[in-house]
Specification:
By secondary structure, the protein is mainly alpha-helical. Helices cover 74% and strands 0% of the residues. The longest helix has 30 residues, at 138-167.
């Protein structure tokens, strides 16, 4: 055995306790969720939603689905079935709305009454759920948002590749 002293200086590692997101970041995220709720309740019914607003609505919807997907083992199965079906109905309604505009059937994002009701019902559940999740565990909730965002980018790239294959 070597009895030499260690020449390196000891550097203690800083251990962070609590959330890695500051209170300002959490407040900013909650403000963005409030904006999305306004997009759903005010802009979408009037048919004046922009691409940017629709992207925000879609991202928050994906975030909620990601949260349910990541935490389904810890959630009550009965509540999960009730909430999951409402959120998925909102997702399908939003997809139909976006598809109509992308196919050129409408010039703007125009939703039918049933679609508006489904999207509104989904966001009536989603916004409070995400706010509560941000309060209880901001780091995990933001990681779930990152997961949902990566999934959305993967799906977008996949559909773009399929469109390119159809054109060639």
């Amino acid at each position: 055995m070597s009895k030499k002293k260690r020449n390196k200086k000891y550097k203690p590692i800083t251990v962070r306790i609590g959330p890695y997101y500051s209170e300002e970041q959490r407040a900013r995220c909650e403000a963005q969720l409030n904006d999305v709720a306004l997009y759903v309740e005010c802009t979408l019914p009037s048919g004046n939603a922009t691409d940017h607003e629709i992207d925000w609505i879609e991202d928050v919807l994906n975030w909620a689905l990601g949260l349910l997907h990541q935490r389904y083992k810890r959630l009550d199965a009965k509540e999960l079935q009730e909430v999951g079906s409402i959120i998925l109905a909102g997702r399908h309604a939003l997809n139909n709305l976006i598809d109509r505009k992308n196919e050129g059937k409408t010039m703007r994002f125009i939703a039918t009454g049933d679609e508006l009701n489904a999207i509104s019902a989904a966001f009536a559940i989603i916004i409070p759920m995400l706010k509560e999740a941000m309060t209880l565990s901001p780091r995990r909730t933001m990681n779930e948002f990152d997961w949902a965002h990566r999934k959305a980018i993967e799906n977008l790239k996949k559909t773009e590749r399929e469109k390119c294959k159809k054109l060639s």
